[in-house]
Request: fold
Amino acid sequence: MTLAYNLQREYISPSEKAFAYKMKLEAMNRQGQRTDLTRSQVGNKSAAKKSSEILAEQMGESKNQIFRYVRLTELTPHILEMVDDKRIAFNPAVELSYLAEKEQQALFDTMQAEDCTPSLAQAQRMKKMSQEGRLNTDVIYTILTEEKPNQKEKMSIQRERIDRFFPRDFSEKQKEDLIVQLLESWYKRRQREHER
Reply:
């Protein structure tokens, strides 16, 4: 079966795609076609297309996306499985692929213990700290256990439930201030009642 056929099933996991692209690029390279898995060169004078460009055209993906998939092959099996299971998103996974194997193992252990996964921003910070030689288990724990902006709970009240209580010219800030003021006075009144 050809790579194109295998990659056109209804669903193909990121790891299958990653290894298929990597194998195809390596095969093209062995056949004498140029492949550079780490970077594309500027000003290549050769008229022949690079293997990555040919593969990108064949698969209908950008060359950069092909490289990003190939990066996933640098992940440890446990983390790659989390990517396949959609527990870690693709973009953070690409960033995590730059971590050393020992760092990835520490990350996996921390994710299991804390039941959390890194956001893209957290994965980028870990990659940067790894490159600077400053990533260790404590740093991984600190980064992973930060509260992410999208995890902060927000309270919302349907506008039609409260708008009738405010003058029409009240701004959102004035409404919020008045709600807080009323809650504070309600809270103080309850405190006084409990003290009696």
In short: The mean pLDDT is 83. The two ends are 82 Å apart (CA to CA). The longest helix spans residues 172-195. The CA atoms of residues 18 and 69 lie 5 Å apart.
